[in-house]
Amino acid sequence: MIYGAIPSLYRVTCAAHCPPSTVYRLPSTVHRLPSTVYRPPSTVHRPPSTVHRPPSTVHRLPSTVHRPPSTVYRLPSTVLFLFFLFPAALSAQNDKAVIDQVVATVGSEIILLSEVQEQFAYVKQQQRELPDEYKCVVVQNLIIQKLLVNQAKIDSVDVKDEEVETQLNARIDRLMLYFNQDEGAIEDFYGQSIAQIKDQLRGDMRNQLLAERMQGQITGKATITPSEVKQFFNNIPVDSLPYFNAEVEIRELVYKPRVNKEEFEKAKSRADELRKKITENGEDFAELAKKFSADPGSGANGGDLGFQRRGTFVPEFEAAVYKLEPNQVSQVVETEFGFHIIQLLERRGNIVHARHILIKPEITDADLEAAKSKLDSVQQSIKNGEMTFSDAVKRFGDKNQASYNNDGRVANPRSGNTFFEVADLDTDVFFAIDGLAVGDITEPFPFRSPDGTRLFRLVLLQSRSKPHKADLKQDYGKIQQAALEQKNRNTRKNGCSKNSAAPTCRSAACSAPARI
Questions:
Q1: What is the pLDDT of residues 477-503, one digit of tens each?
Q2: SS3 category, 454
């Protein structure tokens, strides 16, 4: 749930805490309540082990000191993580002394005092200095959720039982991974069986899916015309126009050096030797992994990759590991990362617990020089008009980079768009484009990916802006997005309020009765 973003539909007046003049704005997304188990994001991020797909290039502040990435996907080990997954289950055991009461009604939906207390306690876990009046914010957010659910029921929005069960099973699978597939440990921690936990969360999950589907129906078809964007911009007072720092847009071609045949054969032979030591000489797999594995995350843990679901690994690795019997050691498996020796430790349905030893072919200085020469040639071909930058990305780019599927455009992970303030760029990129004109291409330069792979890149400067106040022509895309979000807020307001009775609040949580 995104706390702090409050709807403009309603105003809560709380005698003790909430100023009556405070008007809150409706957020652009469905509120995800801590008492509801969260849905996974649409884009599934693969764990950064070298047997997984490598992450896209992340642009960080130049002054940031980077820690080496862990190559094993480890869920947080704190109790807070479990509270994040199943706060309702936790609070159900810990707050037995609370006598519940209805604090607000939204059509046929009610908001209980215990719900407000659960949400407030959850946020306070993360923000220690949280004022009591924040309970009014919690009430407002709950009202928005209930409004969407109530309207979904009025409009006969359907969520099938199978959808609810699929989402519940996915959350339980995550919990099982955290507890190392130990159902007994889960029952000890929550004081409930898996079935009881699912029963307790089923209603919340259904409501979450209803709210999301309702919001999708309300705003899914929303579009905005250029004239509406212009009107939105003209309605902003001149002295309230935002100020934008200098920004750039860049495109990149990431090139992976090719391993020479000699080093390729040496790595394969090394992997064959290690496999024989395990299968014929009986040497310890974990100890060999610690000594020789090139996977910096799992190697230190004896090659242990933990429990992982089908679809986590790259295809060659996954095909091999799912053919193994427990404790069986695979043949040497070649992937884009090198050569693997895999041992299956345990399998539970579509979940496997495996370990591996990775042997990477060495990239020699000659290989690096060949890669640089190749990109020099590509750069010259682009300058001569023999190919476009887009063509070069498709022909020579590393397919595992996120930019490869975006025509070379690099997304800013901090904002989600393609605009970077200079402080958001990697240091090497910043210096490479310094002094370039828009449309120019850098010389090839080396860099390392988060997993340590040595790569080269060409960078094209797509656009550059100077510090300025918001301008309709120069910043049309940003202004268009802001206008669309406002239109969506108004659409949600009208969609939820046309048939729903005005919510009423008898909010002990806010310290005084109030009309919303």
A1: 888 888 888 887 776 666 555 555 555
A2: strand
